[in-house]
Every structure is written in C-alpha cells, then in structure tokens.
Amino acid sequence: MSADTQVRKVVIIGGGIAGGVLALGLRQRGVEVVLVDQRSELGGVGHGITLQGNALKAFDAVGLYDRLKERGFAFSHLRMKTPDGHVVAEMPTPPMGGPDLPGTMGAVRGDIADLIEEMLDEAGVDVRLGTTLTAIDDQGDSVRVTLADGTVETADLLVGADGIRSKVREMIGIDTKPQPVGMGIWRTVAKRPPEMDCSELYFGGPKYKAGYTPISEDLCYAFLLEENLDRSFIGEGPNGALLKERGQGYGGIWGQVRDSLADDAIVNYAWIEAICVDSPWHRGRTIIIGDAAHACPPLIAQGAAMCAEDAVILAEMLTSGDAVEDVLPAFMERRFPRVKMVLDNSLTLAEWEMHPETPGADPGRIMGETLGALVAPA
Fold it and tell me: Would the pTM count as exceeding 0.85?
C-alpha cells in the first residue's frame, strides 16, 4: 500500500451492526477509527433477530461469530405452515456462509450489540457517545467532521451508518426518504417450546403472516405481521394482552407461544419501512452504508446481513492500497446489484403477502430464489 493512498483514519457515524462491524474491520487492519453514536451506550436490549449464513460469514470475518455462537441458536432449515400449524413445506437453508457455518442462527439483538461494544473496546476504537454530527467540510483530499460536543476530526473518509433516518444521508444532499411498505409488525421475546427447532412461518391466517425463530436455548422471537395500525400503536410497552388478542386464529406452536405470553409482556409494534438510495451512496469523501442506504422489509431476514456485508467489504477495499476516490465507485459496483436484488424481492414478497390473490404470487419461490442467489460470495 503506497503512502499516498493509505487510509489512516475513518470517522463512522452510528454504532449499530453496519458501523460496529466496519469499525472492527478497519481497526483489525490498522486504521484509526472514531465511532460516534448519539446514544449513551452501544450495548442494548432488543427483541430477536434471524441471521442467515451470509450474515454469520460477515460476523466471522471480524471475530464476532465465535462469541455469538455461544449465545445464539443455530439451525439449517425453514418450515412453512398453515394457520393451524400443519407443515406445508420444509426448505433447507442454502449454505450462504459456506460449509463451515450454520445456514441460519437466531439471536437476541441485545447480545449482538453487547458483543460489538465489548469488541470495539478491546480493539481500541475511539468511541464517542452522546454526541452527533453537526457539520461536514469536504477538503477534497480529506474530510473535516464537526461534532455537537465541539470537537473536530479530520479523516480520510466519513461513513454514515446511522440507520434508516440517517442524518448523514440528508447532510450530503441525498433526499431519498423511507417509505411505509403497508405492513406493521408485532415482535416479542417468549419462552422457547422444546419442539421449536427452526424458523417457521404461518401463511394464510387472519393476518398477513405469523412466525417465530428460536434465539437461544430458552428463548424465541415471535412476530405477527398485519396492516398498518394507527400510529398510536407504534412503540414498545407491556402489550402482551393486545398481541394475544390480535394473534388469535393461529394454532400449532405459534398458538402455544401466544398463549404463554403474560398480559404485560413487552411487545414492540412498528410500521415496516423501506428505503433504497440509488447508486452512488457517496458524495466526495462521505459514504452511507447499511440501513442508511438500503433498509428492506424483514421478510427474507437479510437486513442485518446486508449491513454486515457492506461493512466487511468496505473495510477490505479501503485497506487494499487503492485511493479512496477509486474505492468508493468500485464498492458501489460490487454492492449495489446484490443489495437491490434483496430489496426488490423483499418488496415483492411484501406485496404478495398483502395481496395473496395476485396472479403468480408464490412467496416460497421468491424466498428460495433469493437465498439461493446469496450463496454466491458478496
């Protein structure tokens, strides 16, 4: 790597999966990293998450998978069921992470956040909490970043990994906004019945879809998708009784999980939103990645995977010896088609689940084709 093109310092806004994995990937390659997050701590609570093999591969690249596997629940297939719990189809999960990793893993989101926080500290990342970005001054050969606490950092690159409502995206003049998909999702964490051994999806019931994923030896993550309810429902609170009421009409293990919920169980309800910023995601020496650039409905369980892949690939490319101005368009060329395919297929799937009478609607086929395509390395 020649001295004039070497990336020495990167400022990252956002310490979620995209920002955290990128910070780890860069530090492990000797780059100085300042990671900024407006929260007071990076670790966290949170419901469950389904991680496909390509997400695990990206986590493995920075050493996160070895820690997560001690806590998560690995499996290698997916079942589709009728509302009363009868199996319609069973699909093996393609080996998207390669032969040495499970096809899928369920995990607690808070565990991932806690592990990333722990690893950032060990790696020597300069983490600035409780502050945010207030100004970007692109100098051509560097970028000056001003934070709300008054500090100024000069770096080779600024990365916005600050989520679907990205401030960095807005500050660099990209006016794409997240759009509601038309579905809302209820999520909760419950005790895992012993017979639950993989993700299962219940189609054709009174709502759009119900399902769950085992996320540890003891716990599962259960969800229910229906129409967008009034905004007053949005948020998290002790709404177990409400989810039990809205989730009537499903049997099988889903019915058991629903009935096991306490009336005051913590439940999250959100409108599902999507965004896809057209290429390029960069302006000068600033780039957005992860949900800031492409947030997809969670119907193919690829959101975290796309974020983590962005991070690992950008870290590799920034430390390859090529100049930043060459890396960013090359990164777009490599990432955009894959991300766009996942996003388009997720939106098609959402449309079909909301309108199952659509001619040619076949959720199982599009899910299988998408996962099959993702076996190719990122």
Answer: yes
Closest residue by Cα to residue 65 from 17, 26, 32, 15: 17
User: What backbone torsions phi and psi does residue 308 show, to the nearest 5 degrees?
Assistant: -70, -35
Q: How far, in Å, CA of 17 to CA of 40, rounded?
A: 17
In a domain, 134, yes or no: yes
For residue 350, tell me if it sits in a domain.
Answer: yes
Sign of torsion over alpha carbons 235, 272, 290, 277: negative
DSSP character string of 262-289: -TT-EEEEEEEEEEEPPSP-EETTEEE-
Tens of pLDDT, residue by residue over 344-362, are 999 999 999 899 889 999 8
Residue in 116, 111, 90, 94 with CA at minimum distance from that of residue 103:
94
Domain hosting residue 355, numbered range: 9-70+111-178+275-373
User: With bands split at pLDDT 50, 70 and 90, how would you rate the model's confidence at 2?
Assistant: very low
The count of structural domains within the chain is 1
* CATH number of the domain residue 128 falls in: 3.50.50.60
- pLDDT tens-digit series, residues 209-255: 999 999 999 999 999 999 999 999 999 999 999 999 999 999 999 99
* Residue 15 tokens, joined: 């310490």
In a domain, 294, yes or no: yes
Q: From start to end of 41-149, where are the E strands? A: 48-52, 73-75, 77-81, 87-92, 104-108, 126-129, 133-138, 143-147
- 231 part of a folded domain: no
